[in-house]
Amino acid sequence: MPEDRVPPHSIEAEQSVLGAVLLDKDILINLSVTLQSIHFYRDAHRSIYQCMIDLYMANQPVDLVTVAERLTQQGRLDDIGSITYLTSLFDVTPVISNAPAYAKIVYDKYLLRQLISAGNEIAAAALNASGEPANLLDSAEQRIFKLSQLRESRDFVPLVNVLHGVYDLLNASKLPNGNVNGVPAGYQMLDRLTHGFQKGDLIILAARPSVGKTAFSLNLSLNAAVRHQIPVAFFSLEMPKEQLAMRMLCAESVVRSEAVRNGNLTDKEWERLARGIQELSSAKIFIDDTPALSVMEMRSKARRLKMEENIGLIVVDYMQLLRYPHRSENRQQEVAEITRTLKALARELEVPVLALAQLSRASEQRSDRRPNLSDLRESGEIEQAADLVMFLYREDYQSQQTGPSDGAGPIEVILGKHRNGPVGQVNLVFRKDYGRFENAALGSEDAG
Question: Does the annotation mark 238 as catalytic?
Answer without folding.
Answer: yes
